[in-house]
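2024-03-11 09:14:02 DEBUG pipeline.ingest accepted 1 chain
2024-03-11 09:14:02 DEBUG pipeline.ingest length=124
2024-03-11 09:14:03 DEBUG pipeline.predict start
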Amino acid sequence: MTTIEHLAILLLIAAVVAMAARRMKVPYTVGLVLAGIGLALLPFKPQIALTRDLIYFVILPPLVYEAALYIEWPALRRDLSLVTVLATAGLLLSAAVTATAMHALVGWPWACRPICRSGPTSSA
């Protein structure tokens, strides 16, 4: 089987999961996670490389679109300040934990230096 055929099968599975999730009244993303766990336990696995482009341009847009369709605007408006604070703190905390873990466990260099030490840069 080619990569396109594997992707077609995975899209078919995602469509079936979407229909089942709607019928069972659970979020689509929960169904996708459960389907992914089920597929991971199967003895045969499609050999699809999980690249940054695949995540950003194929997987993430439908999830964000689906979340935007079913957002409860009055609840978001009511809790906007709390959501903003938690999202900002959560982003900063998760970035710091991830950077520290990758630096300590894998030996990756720190991605950025303080501006005062980096000196002038040009984008030529």
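2024-03-11 09:14:41 DEBUG pipeline.report The chain has a mean pLDDT of 82.
2024-03-11 09:14:41 DEBUG pipeline.predict end
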